[in-house]
Amino acid sequence: MTIAAFRADLGDIPVEDHPRIVQQRSRDHYWYSPVLKAKLDHVTAEVVVSPRTQEEVKTVLAAAYRHKVAVTPRGAGTGNYGQALPLAGGAMLNLMNLDRVIDIKPDRVRAEAGIVLEKLDQQTRPAVGGELRFHPSTYRMASLGGFIAGGSGGVGSIRWGGLRNLGSILSVKIITCEESPREMELTGEDVLKVAHAYGTNGVIVEAEMPLAPACDWVDIMVGFDDFLAACRFSEAITAQDSLLLKEVAPCAAPIGQDYFNRHKPYIRDGQSVVLIMAAPVAVEPVLIHLAYHGGEVLYRSDKASEEELRRLPPIYELAWNHTTLRALKVDPSITYLQTRYPTLKHVEKIVSILGDELPMHIEMTRQDGAVTFAGLPLVRYTSEARLEEIIAIHEDNGCAVFNPHRYTLEEGGMKRTDAAQLAFKRQADPAGMLNPGKMIAWDDPGFDLNSGRAWLFQGLAATA
Ligand code: FAD
User: Fold this and answer.
1) Which positions ≥6 away from 55 have C-beta within 8 Å?
2) Where in this chain does the record put each FAD-binding PCMH-type domain (predicted)?
3) pLDDT, the chain, mean
4) For the segment 151-209, what is each residue's pLDDT rounded down to a tens digit?
5) How far does the centroid of ligand 1 lie from the alpha carbon of residue 93, in Å?
6) Which one of 191, 259, 295, 355 is least enclosed by Cβ atoms within 10 Å?
7) Closest CA to 375 of 329, 242, 416, 398
8) What is the number of the ligand 1 atom nearest to the C-alpha of 114?
9) Same domain, 343 and 385
10) What's the rounded mean pLDDT across residues 52-65?
């Protein structure tokens, strides 16, 4: 028995094998996608292994290599594309016990991969007055390693870009899956070999991240009768170099009214809203821009009562994929897309074609110095075929789609192989034991990514 032999080599490292608990810990937020839900609902590992130290991670990976057991690394399991689902069964590698902060400097922090992002800031803020430059809206749950391996950007990307920009991750320490697992420290451009690689080519055990000056961000929600006016305002304040902002997200009506349950009383029928996090010194100039663009303040945390501050979630928990989560809680038929609109004209065009079938949600970000409209529009889902049509409408109108209804790196990304990640997998995971089925180039190098067909991992068919 492969799993039994694997377990026998783990010593006293905690192992969970209760089928219900293992299945629960084998899941992430793949169910945001009706397409992935249909394909992956049955997926489960056989055991969850929870090492407490980096040495124990090595022991697990050596045993996995020896007994040819698939290993899927897992942080908090908040990924949205089934990245952390163990398609070939085997073992889930729970990394949340590796949560030590190793070193804090005024401009950077080094910590183990399992630390929750909010907990990291809770240590750097008092120590050096610094905080992570940006974080996913799952800040209060997600792990550092999971963010690097599975995320892309988030709250703060309006100022600092995304994880794939050089300088966003300073270094990463990984452990390889070989007969004698090695530690490797990746710096500079090399960090991109494992960033957003879904843990397919090394288990991240430590990372060093740059810090920005910490700030007591003010949450502001503003309203507009016209969504495009909300977008023009959002573009204008994002482009102002003088304004220190951490978040600007225009959401078309009826998103605020229908799905932001606890903020609903602040929003009038038919109002589109913009979610903002501003430094205290930026609030007044933001409000001047707001008046100029014809918007109104609906809520601001610096004027809120104690009771409101207790009752309302932070504004970033309405943004990014929390917008989708809030919509899904009210209407389970909703799903979403990840898009990029090169200009406001592109947003306008898509809104005019798709209307309320695609309630629009934009995240303002900065890419290579330019203000960009990163879209996370909701989709009133009817069928997979219609979803594909909506994607095609975007592409035909010059708007990129990063398909969140695919579990592979290539199909969810730019529809091409990341050669550096593939080459690194040959070194760090020569037997292909890490998170099988997520890198098409490894399993099926001849697959035509532009064929229009979705790729099916053969191991997945075998477990169905
Ligand atoms: P997991 O989901 O556990 O893992 C993510 C991937 O990384 C998996 O492939 C896993 O195998 C791999 N992995 C995990 N740990 C390691 C490790 N130590 N070494 C190697 N591989 C590893 N994402 C964003 O980028 N920005 C957002 O704003 C954002 N908002 C979200 C909002 C909601 C409501 C939800 C549900 C998701 C959101 N996400 C967002 C996606 C996700 O929350 C983040 O990417 C998060 O950082 C993932 O961290 P995690 O610890 O949950 O990782």
Assistant:
1) none
2) 40-214
3) 96
4) 999 999 999 999 999 999 999 999 999 999 999 999 999 999 999 999 999 999 999 99
5) 14
6) 355
7) 398
8) 18
9) yes
10) 98
Residue nearest to ligand 1 atom 53, measured at CA: 146
Domain extent at residue 100: 1-214+414-464
CATH code, 240: 3.40.462.40
201-212: pLDDT as tens digits: 999 999 999 999
Atom of ligand 1 nearest to the CA of 83: 9
- Indicate if ligand 1 lies below 6 Å from the C-beta of 137: yes
Among 401, 430, 453, which residue terminates a domain? 401
Q: Is the CB–ligand 1 distance for residue 435 below 6 Å? A: yes
Q: Is the pTM here over 0.90, yes or no?
A: yes
The answer to whether residues 266 and 364 belong to one domain is yes
Q: Which atom of ligand 1 is nearest to the CA of 438?
A: 9
Q: Is 365 in the pocket of ligand 1 (CB under 6 A)?
A: no
**Residue 208 bridge partners (DSSP):** 110, 171
326 lines ligand 1 (CB under 6 A): no
- Ligand 1 pocket, residue 86 CB under 6 Å: no
Distance in Å, CA 346 to ligand 1 centroid: 29
Ligand 1 atom nearest to CA at 198:
9
Q: Are residues 228 and 206 in the same domain?
A: no
Query: 317-370: per-residue pLDDT in tens?
Result: 999 999 999 999 999 999 999 999 999 999 999 999 999 999 999 999 999 889
- 351, 374, 401 — which closes off a domain? 401
Q: Are 86 and 200 in a shared domain?
A: yes
Q: Are 328 and 320 in contact (CB under 8 A)?
A: no
The tally of domains found in the chain comes to 2
Q: What CA–CA distance (Å, rounded) separates 158 from 363?
A: 8
Which residue has a Cα nearest atom 28 of ligand 1?
A: 136
Q: 101 and 228, same structural domain?
A: no
Q: Are residues 249 and 183 in the same domain?
A: no
Give the phi and the psi of residue 281 in degrees, each rounded to 5.
-70, -15
Q: For residue 74, give the nearest of 16, 10, 3 by alpha carbon.
A: 16
29 in contact with ligand 1, CB cutoff 6 A: yes
Q: Which residue's alpha carbon is nearest to atom 47 within ligand 1?
A: 147
